Amino acid sequence: MSENESGLAGVDAKTPNAARIYNYFLGGKDNFAVDRAAAETVLSMAPEVRVAAMENREFLVRAVKYLVAEAGVSQFVDIGAGIPAERPVHEVAQAIDPGSRVAYVDNDSVVLTHSRALLGGRPGTAVVAGDARDPDAILSAPELNVLIDLDRPVAVILIAILHFVPDSDDPAGLVRRLLDRLPSGSHVVITHLSDGGVPDDPRIAQTRALYNGGLFFRSRKEIEGLFDGFEQVEPGVVGVGQWRRNLGADDATSWWLGGVARKP
Ligand SMILES: C[S@@+](CC[C@H](N)C(=O)[O-])C[C@H]1O[C@@H](n2cnc3c(N)ncnc32)[C@H](O)[C@@H]1O
């Protein structure tokens, strides 16, 4: 996508954007030169990030399959859903249970425009403008409530988003507030950038600078704390490449940790 081709009102093609950088990592075309430059800077420091981003999506696919096929959950609220990628949540879920419903939520106008263009009108889906820092507004949104029955179990998906939320906005508290509104049997799916146990790795500071400081690598303990109060689905919080794949530790990326948990 070139700046002139974008044709999207209000879209800033001159500042790197998290959703578009991620789209580039995943091999997508919905990004500008400034996003590609930022992404390439990250890749020059840590080439494994591209594979890690793909493993993150694969984790999402395995988690959704688990939720529909094994946990019996067929309603999803995907927060920080990003620019639609291959095998979006509704396709994976509806392949198992055609009645599955997915509300895609994001706070970025680029994402919302792409999502409405690509997903608009797909049965069982809605695109909802919402901010993870305001869980009540998300769950009260009329477009979400016509699709999702909040009296039945819901899986809240928070893939690669909570590392954009600073401690001052209490990410663990946001997870609890989301699940507070949902019945027993609801689930939360989280992946999060980890500091790999080396918080002073210079690549972390360099990557954060590309995101103007608005990116927060957290420790394993902090990421595990996001699931406090919920029942962890086996195997717990692990490298996203490992989750329910029975791989050895060497196959796990240290950049992303993830897990799935159930509200008792
Ligand atoms: C790295 S992308 C992840 C996309 C998607 N979850 C995936 O795994 O493919 C992060 C997404 O989170 C969104 N985001 C960041 N902060 C947010 C917030 N406070 N509320 C809602 N969305 C947010 C960004 O706009 C972006 O689309």
Can you walk through the features of this model?
This protein is α/β, with parallel strands linked by helices and 264 residues long. The protein has a single domain, classed as Vaccinia Virus protein VP39 (Rossmann fold), CATH 3.40.50. The protein has eleven helices and eight strands. It has helices spanning 3-6, 18-25, 33-45, 48-69, 89-96, 109-119, 135-140, 142-145, 171-180, 202-210, 220-225; strands at residues 75-79, 101-106, 125-129, 155-159, 187-193, 231-232, 238-239, 256-262. Strands 1, 2, 3, 4, 5, 6, 7 and 8 form an eight-stranded mixed beta sheet that branches. Helix 6 (109-119) links the parallel strand 2 and strand 3 (125-129). Helix 2 packs across helix 3 (33-45), helix 3 runs antiparallel to helix 10 and helix 4 packs parallel to helix 5. The termini are far apart. 45% of the residues are buried. Residues 2-7 have low confidence and may be disordered. The protein binds S-adenosylmethionine. S-adenosylmethionine is lined by residues 18-19, 22, 56-57, 60, 79-82, 85, 106-108, 111, 131-133, 159-161, 164.
